[in-house]
Write a structure and sequence with these properties.
This protein is α/β, with parallel strands linked by helices. About 25% of the residues lie in helices and about 20% in strands. It is globular.
């Protein structure tokens, strides 16, 4: 019997009960294994997000005893559950979609994991007034109209020792050195594929109107550094392990207040 099936049985959940409740809470984006019942068996990415998790799970400590974890954009709760499985003392999952929070609460209940889930936006995390040892920011950035603001707020309000970041990426996978400054008349760098680029989606991408901004690899890394995160590992193509450090510059205003052209 699998661990998920054993946990479900200990909690009094029979497979048919799980199946009925999972269907009632659907559709699911997280294809979870709840006591042998798949929540999204026809997921277009297959065993997702477990298939991605297996590629970078080694980069996160196996023993999280005594650690606190914030899962921003927790969706159906996959990563929150994995953090609790590793012994995290406290796991808080936040999301803005009540449907996802209902799924996450049910999944945690079935798996016998005590996890708190709250309706909260990444833009409102300052209200938590708490720093977390580990912050997960997985698959959220490209759904935001104001992505760099979100990274700034994470750095300012909740990031502790480690940020685990993931974003869909499109464009060049190479990264080229970027100078500290360029002359106003220098423009050729903007046409090079490996220059940091954040692609704007005006209408929809992948049939999802919430996909707003998609970075290339150079842009994802540059945004993290700009927000004050030092990249310590890159265990998977879209995943970065970061350490909170000092932001290289003070937060910028809507319009520059200093500089030659102010």
């Amino acid at each position: 019997m699998t661990d998920s099936a054993e946990n479900a049985r200990r909690g009094g959940f029979e497979p048919e009960v799980i199946r009925r409740r999972a269907e009632a809470l659907g559709p699911w984006f997280h294809n979870l294994d709840l006591g042998g019942v798949r929540t999204a068996p026809d997921h277009f990415l297959g065993d997702y997000p477990a298939v991605k998790w297996r590629r970078f799970a080694h980069a996160i400590p196996q023993d999280l005893s005594g650690k606190s974890v914030l899962d921003i954009g927790c969706n159906g709760g996959f990563y929150s559950i994995e953090m609790k499985r590793r012994g995290a003392a406290r796991v808080l999952g936040i999301d803005t979609e009540p449907e996802y929070l209902a799924q996450a609460r049910f999944a945690a209940e079935v798996m016998g994991q005590e996890i708190e889930f709250r309706a909260l936006s990444v833009y409102d995390i300052g209200a938590l007034r708490e720093r977390f040892d580990i912050v997960l920011f997985m698959g959220v950035l490209y759904h935001l109209r104001h992505p760099l603001l979100a990274l700034d707020l994470i750095h300012e309000h909740v990031a502790g020792d480690m940020l685990v970041f993931q974003s869909m990426q499109r464009g060049a996978e190479t990264v080229e050195p970027v100078r500290e400054d360029y002359d106003f008349w220098e423009t050729e760098q903007f046409d090079r594929p490996a220059y940091p680029k954040l692609h704007f989606v005006e209408h929809s991408y992948a049939h999802d109107p919430t996909n707003w901004w998609v970075p290339n690899r150079a842009c994802a890394e540059a945004m993290l550094r700009s927000a004050g995160f030092e990249i310590t590992a890159h265990p998977e193509a879209e995943v970065y392990i970061c350490r909170r450090s000092t932001a290289p510059k003070p937060p910028g205003a809507v319009y520059p207040t200093r500089g030659e052209h102010a």
